[in-house]
Amino acid sequence: MATTSDIRKGLCIRYNHDIYKIIEFLHVKPGKGPAFVRTKLKSVTTGKVIDNTFSAGHKIDDVRVETHKFQYLYSEGEFYHFMNTEDYTQIRLLREALDTPELMKEGEVVTVIINTEDNAPLSVEMPPHVILEVTATEPGVKGNTATNATKPATVETGAEIQVPLFIDEGDKIRVDTEKGQYQERIKG
Description:
It is a single chain. This protein is mainly β. The protein folds into three domains: about 1-60, Roll (SH3 type barrels), CATH 2.30.30; about 65-125, CATH 2.40.50.140; about 130-185, CATH 2.40.50.140. It is about 0% helix and about 55% strand. The protein has strands spanning about 1-5, 10-15, 20-30, 35-45, 50-55, 60, 65-75, 80-85, 90-95, 110-115, 120-125, 130-135, 150-155, 160-165, 170-175, 180-185. The termini are far apart. About 20% of the residues are buried.
């Protein structure tokens, strides 16, 4: 059993007969009244995100987890197939277990969180950013750069991302996997 002081991003807890992963939290100490922790929880089984507030010192049932590196192989309908990079065993996960499956390309190495009680995979953590090639975008119009204007671009995984006007087809870009946003163009 843990308490609210143990809450951190990525912690998996048992709550309302389900397992949730903490994706955001904020310790709040108001001027009046007791302290509390405001959290955003994501269900590892359904992918649904809920907001919840725990009072300070509240006992939470944490789930013991291990992390393993897996390589993304391919997708088949709603299932995504991965291979353990250490012992080459393969697993398949539902789309809901992934945070941003549209940014994952074949061969990408991700971290899979596994419940130690029953060895069931709970969720997949992407690297902080990925490098993807732009496969389709409209050409930028000269003179339209007075502000931070953006245009939609389709990348090699099929995802659509807003990019600056100077990005062309064939350019490689770095994408933040947490927000799904363009970060920078990769030269060479």
